[in-house]
Amino acid sequence: MNLFINPISKNCNIFLFNDNREIIDSIVFELKGNESSLLLPTIDDFLKKNNIDYFDIKNIVLVNGPGSFTGVRTAVLAINTINYITKKSLTAISYFELFKDYPIVKSSSKKDCFFKENINSEIEIIENSKLKQILEKNNIKTIYGEIELENIEIIEKIDYLSIIKELKFQNLEKIEPLYLKKPNIS
Q1: Are 115 and 105 in contact (CB under 8 A)?
Q2: I need a labelling partner for 38 at 20 to 30 A (CA). Which of 7, 13, 59, 140 fits?
Q3: Does residue 11 lie in a domain region?
Q4: Structure confidence by residue, pLDDT tens digits, 156-170
Q5: pTM for the whole structure
Q6: Residue 41 sits in which domain range?
């Protein structure tokens, strides 16, 4: 069995899938702000419900950012700790690899967002007001990801089955967090 965890999206998604890349079970729940108290207990309960132990898992796939500093750090630490004990194959993918179309936007804070215009562009941190100007200037009416903007169609649906089917396991020993900006700590 294999485990896929996306703690970065608005709702956390966890999938259990077999070696044929068939999804056996999944769970979706709100995680924002409660990463340290909810993530591991929810994974534990999910595995118990499926009569699976951490040692039964071959591969763990984690969306490692970008997102809130604490959320990314907590998820990466949790998965790396599980792997330290169980010695599983780890795979890291970014939030921006969850979509096949562009542009992709991920809210970063109340005033700015992560933005990737196309497959070849770098991920940028831009102010929400500047994003609106870029979209209007380029006559972009549809974006993919998570953000709230007026007069723009936002497609949040992620095709997890396709991602799981096409996934290339990386066999990492440790996942590194994907941070794009410094934490807002005072």
Answers
A1: yes
A2: 59
A3: yes
A4: 999 999 999 999 999
A5: 0.92
A6: 2-97+158-166
- Of 28, 31, 26, 25, the residue nearest 8 (C-alpha): 31
Count of domains in the chain? 2
Task: Indicate whether 147 and 91 sit together in one domain.
Answer: no
Question: Which amino acid is it at 125?
Answer: I
Measured CA distances, 141 to 24, 111, 137, 154 (Å): 36, 21, 11, 9
Is residue 124 scored above 70 in pLDDT?
yes
Nearest to 2 by CA among 170, 178, 145: 170
Closest CA to 95 of 147, 133, 136: 147
- Per-residue pLDDT tens digits for 60-103: 999 999 988 888 999 999 999 999 999 999 999 999 999 999 99
Sheet holding 2-6, edge to edge: 23-30, 11-17, 2-6, 59-63, 89-93
Residues 61 and 73 in one domain: yes
- Same-domain check for residues 71 and 114: no
Q: Is omega for the bond preceding 103 within 30 degrees of 0, making it cis?
A: yes
Q: Say whether pLDDT at 184 is over 70.
A: no
The pLDDT value recorded for residue 186 is 56
Tokens describing residue 133: 């100007």
